[in-house]
Design brief:
By secondary structure, this protein is mainly α. The chain is built from four helices and no strands. Helix 3 crosses helix 4. The protein starts with 7 loop residues before the first helix and ends in a 19-residue tail after the last helix.
Length: 82
């Protein structure tokens, strides 16, 4: 099955290839965005709304990973280079 050239998955994979980022999927960007919102002080209810989760417990589980920002896909952007 061929993927649609305008699909989010195809666009993200093409951008990742240009940026020399391996194994990047649209869901990685969604999770990273949620974590950045949380790290910036966003309230769980706001993040829940952005993600479209039915319950705040789902959002808590979604953000519950102990992964450091520097290990997230967006580290290629140099967000923790301090």
């Amino acid at each position: 099955m061929r993927s649609n050239p305008g699909s989010p998955s195809t666009l993200v994979k093409a951008a990742a290839k240009r940026a020399d980022i391996k194994n990047l999927a649209p869901h990685d960007l969604r999770r990273t965005c949620a974590r950045l919102c949380h790290l910036a002080g966003g309230e769980l209810e706001q993040i829940q709304f952005l993600l479209g989760h039915a319950s705040v417990q789902t959002t808590e589980r979604y953000l519950g990973c102990k992964q450091r920002l520097s290990q997230a896909v967006n580290d290629k952007l140099g967000l923790e280079d301090t």
